[in-house]
Amino acid sequence: MQRRLAAIVHADLAGFTRMMEGAETRTFRHLKSAQTEVWRPAIDSGRGRLVGTAGDAMLAEFGSAVSAVAAAIDIQERMARFNDALSEEQRMLFRIGVHLGEVIIDDEDQNIFGDGVNLAARIQTLAEPGGIAVSRAVRDLVELRVEYVFHDGGEHQLKNVSRAVQVFHVRQARLVSPGTTTRMVPQITLRFEGPDSAGRKHTFEVSMEKLVGQSQGMCIGRAADQCQLVVPHPTVSRRHAKLSLAGEALQVEDLGSTNGTAVNGAVLKAGAPVALQAGSKLRLGDVELVVHHT
């Protein structure tokens, strides 16, 4: 049994189940094209190795964190061009997670295993659709190209990981505010409440003050270890949607959920924020919540 230090890249397609239900053959064809036209050339250029694919997931390893992050950026840039040829509902938005850790190599098929691989997969779930998330170990070793920056995503308690993991998002510098300004925060609490189809009531609250302090927004989902706002229902994805502020305006964004997000009956596209107001109806899977200000 061999062990080595590797930079691990794990990726997953946001909203894959929903895309397969809507157009199975077309989605499969686009996924195979993305693997051939985007993933393999980008990994080869970074002198990495595509370890394997399983459905919509892909796993690769690199000899250095610098090469792994450069390849992840290359992949997302290539995917943006790949998606330009597709209609909006067909576009493929991958989440990518990158971690540096020790791996175990299977001599028979050269597959890799271990905590490093598991952590890369967990970090991937925290990335935005079409985005990249990395561990602190990676951030501390990598200097990004001038047009990109690391944005602190905070510490997270990940499933089956005993310690908190600090995550950083790789973002285009022009999309990140160069600084913060002090402003008066209205003393408002947002209350979301409503039933599922069986009539069971679901409720959560968040203050505007707390939301203002979360530059990345706040995640809504079924997984208490990954989301600040929890809706424990089987039709709600582990990381389903995100609440954030654009200036003073409240908005919600679908995170590639399996059963979808809707506002006042209009289904959201993954990664496209939509405004929320008092009285708006927010549907997460089979749960419909009304927004109240208190």
UniProtKB/TrEMBL annotation:
InterPro entries: A/G_cyclase, Adenylyl/Guanylyl_Cyclase_3/4, FHA_dom. Transmembrane segments: none annotated. Residues 218-268 form the FHA domain. CDD domains: CHD, FHA. Residues 7-124 form the Guanylate cyclase domain. It comes from the Bacteria. Pfam families: FHA (PF00498), Guanylate_cyc (PF00211). This is Adenylate/guanylate cyclase domain-containing protein.
